[in-house]
Amino acid sequence: MTLSVATYGELWDGARPNVTSMAIVFENEANSLVGAQLLLDLAKYSDRLLARRCLKTHPLVDALHVTDFPTLAIFRRGERVPVMVAELRRLLLNELEVYLRMETDDIRRGLTFASRKNHSAATGHMSAASLKEQKCSADREQCQAQYFASELDMLKALRYALVREVSRSGVPLMGKSLTSLHNFLNTLAHHFPHSTVDYSLEGNGTLTFLNASSRARVVFTHMRNFIDKHGVDNPMSVEDWQAEFNRAEQDQGRPFPVNEEWDHCRGSSPYYRGYTCGLWIAFHALTVKDYRDHMHGIDRNGNV
Fold it and tell me: Which is it for strands 49-55 and 21-27: parallel, antiparallel or unpaired?
């Protein structure tokens, strides 16, 4: 069905009490078949998921900074910020199915992230998944140290890089510098991981999408599009860049942990580890996520 609601609460009108998630397909034209096909594909999850369509004229499009169509957004009941926003041609459909079906076999392949409260994110292919589950269930701190990398550290480092380091020279962004910044944001928008597995529950770990990382990806996408609209051939002042970044992160509820202490990257003194550690971990995480996407047929521009 096509949305014609005016308030957030109305989004859930008609949803069954047991439905906890909602997927909205944003489309350019009312006669597009993409959204209709997706609604049919998701019908088998109707006991858990409410699926709807939304045209580009709806207020939600501006609120979520949707500029490309079709795009899919997933909301949890009671939350106004989506847990995922992805262009459909760039969406790894398997991620959506894992989100709905909680398939632990898929969880064990590749890179996953833990929440900021739970500190960390698992990296790499684990050949001894059962041993990891045992350790994580028995000793959460040891599990984090051995198998996980901090989401907080990566988000903190990336904001510092994009706001402070990019503007450090004070000169306008132009030429190769602006092109490189655009390419970096494009990589972050497509491949920054935003899911986690929680081993604190009994039995196998369960997958969930991370609110902060998902919102950060919206910021990355917005800033990439901001450069697109400005044009890579036109110099951009650092003041304009910082002001737009501040607006974008404010729109997304400020997902970057600016005022929190470093987590795994905390050094014995402020002069050690910190930013460089977090940035290195972020680069490592991006390479693993890029590899996973490539194995699923997603190219480095996010296209299937």
Answer: parallel
